Amino acid sequence: MLSAKRNSVAKRYSILRLVALLAAGVLCAGCQGAHREAREGRAGPQPASGRGPNLVICVIDAARADHVGCCGYPRETTPNIARLAEEGLVFRNHHCQYPATRMSTACLFTSQFVDTHLMGGMWKQAEPSFTMPVGLKAAGFQTALFSSNILASPEVGVGCAFDEAYYGDELAPGGSSIHRRPEALLGKFEEWLAERSGSRFFAYLHFLPPHAPYVQPDEMTELFAGDTPPGYRREKYGHGKWEFPAQYYVPKRDPPALPGWINLYDANLRWGDWAVGEVERLLRGAGVFENTLFIVTADHGEAFGEHGYVWHSWGIYDDVTRIPLVMRLPGGSGEPRSFDALTQTIDLLPTVYDLFGISYPADEIQGRSLLPLLEGLTEQINDYTFIRSNQPPKYMVRGERYSLVLFENPEWRGLYDLRNDPEQRVNILAEEPERAAELFAAFETYARAQRQPPHEFLGEGVETRPRAEREKIELTPQLERELRALGYLD
After folding, report:
1. Residue 365 and residue 129: Cα distance in Å, rounded?
2. What is the C-alpha to C-alpha distance for residues 174 and 294, in angstroms, rounded to an integer?
3. Among 6, 49, 160, 350, which has the highest number of CB atoms less than 10 A from its own CB?
4. Per DSSP, what are the bridge partners of residue 55?
5. pLDDT of residue 402
6. Rounded to whole angstroms, how far apart are CA atoms 204 and 59?
7. CA distance 238 to 309
8. Nearest residue to 368 via CA among 349, 384, 387, 341
9. CATH architecture of 387-463
């Protein structure tokens, strides 16, 4: 919910901020009116006037925020992102809606929770009629998706509305694993960019590093070899130590020995950061970087055993759900700014559209625009984020001070005081039942508003809605090969 605090200092800062955005060419003169009309569902996509700013979103797969420099990590894992952050906006408390690529990317494109867009597992569910590329295309953007992870591609029903999509063998014909490397994606993006002269565009680039397997150039592998990772405590990691059964969290493979495993992850993250720097270089070479809204984020994080789980897809805590978000406005934004407000993946679409002054159907969007936060009109956008995971089904209701983890089995549930226990290790559910009830009430409100409410968490009295039509995703040879290489198939 938007804060009611609007004192004179905030108002003065809001005006200065708005002027700065206008000067950067980000906001059109009718932005605020379009924003109101869009929220009220009266306006359709408005054509862009002239050559407005471009949009580039770079996703580095499986990047957890607490291993990114501008989010507080002392290692130099992300020097390029750090440089962008010095000219931009850093959101330090940003979360995905699901710790797996396909579902999280669908949340980014649709601004809908997983229980509403329903794209998950190996089921193909039609994308909503309005997604991020749909409105931008109507506003005059040329759109393209470039993905080194096939789970963020039209192959599995994600990003189908882009004008062009390059992934898998499209990046490197012949079935070679080279298409998973950033270099292959960058080469295709460079070709595409050279043909966009004079056109306004939206490019989504999804790089595989630091997603496992951790295979990076030798010089990066050696960066942290033999060192002890920052904050590493052996007793911090393990399996089966917590309040729920370990068999749900340990994958069918043995993890590498710690702390060397974390060192490899950090080296792989450095490779993903290198790719972000190369995108900036290509945009500068094309003369369009200063006229581009440049966003760097991730789809989910990665677990190293902190809560009895390694990998990401079935986790639920901050290690797999808290991700980086850095935004550099066209022309830069002067002094760097960071925000501790609670934000989430689904907030990106309305924020981008409001910055560009493009309307969107408010009744189809579940995220909240961060524009009031950027203008200094509020210090809070969301009271809670709602995150889902499976195997077994579970949710996290995460506020700024407390988080509630919900399983169907009440005995596995947990409440955590994030101020005193940021690693979510001490379950205080028994000591704070009223606080848990408050967060559960917020979850009920969220759950009942979804297209497919999670009935097993809500009890009696929930309206049953017919499940949307869907079909099994065909496991093509390419898809099977990619899933096996990414570790999703044995």
Report:
1. 11
2. 32
3. 350
4. 202, 293
5. 98
6. 8
7. 8
8. 349
9. 2-Layer Sandwich (3.30)
Average pLDDT in the chain: 83
Q: How far apart are CA 291 and CA 269, in angstroms?
A: 27
pTM, entire model: 0.87
Q: Where in the chain is the domain with CATH 3.40.720.10?
A: 8-42+53-383+472-485
pLDDT at 414 over 80: yes
Q: 3-class SS at 395?
A: strand
Higher-pLDDT residue of 355 and 467 is 355
Burial of 234 (0-12, 13-18, 19+ CB in 10 A): exposed
- 140: pLDDT strictly greater than 80: yes
- My answer on whether omega of the bond before 230 falls inside 30° of 0, hence cis, is no
Where do you find CATH 3.30.1120.10 in the chain?
387-463
Q: What is the pLDDT averaged over residues 97-121?
A: 93
**Residue 247: count of CB within 10 angstroms of its CB:** 9
Q: What is the CATH number of domain 8-42+53-383+472-485?
A: 3.40.720.10
Q: Is the pLDDT of residue 111 over 50?
A: yes
Q: Decide: 327 and 89 in contact? Cβ < 8 Å.
A: yes
H or E element: which one contains 365?
none
Please tell me the predicted confidence (pLDDT) of residue 246: 37
Instruction: Locate 32 and state its tokens.
Output: 């605020």
**In the chain, what are the helix, strand and coil shares in percent, each to the nearest 5?**
35, 15, 50
Say which residue, 477 or 129, is predicted with more confidence: 129
Residue 414 DSSP symbol: E
The size of the chain, in residues, is: 490
- What distance lies between CA 383 and its chain's CA centroid? 18
Residue of 183 and 197 predicted with greater confidence: 183
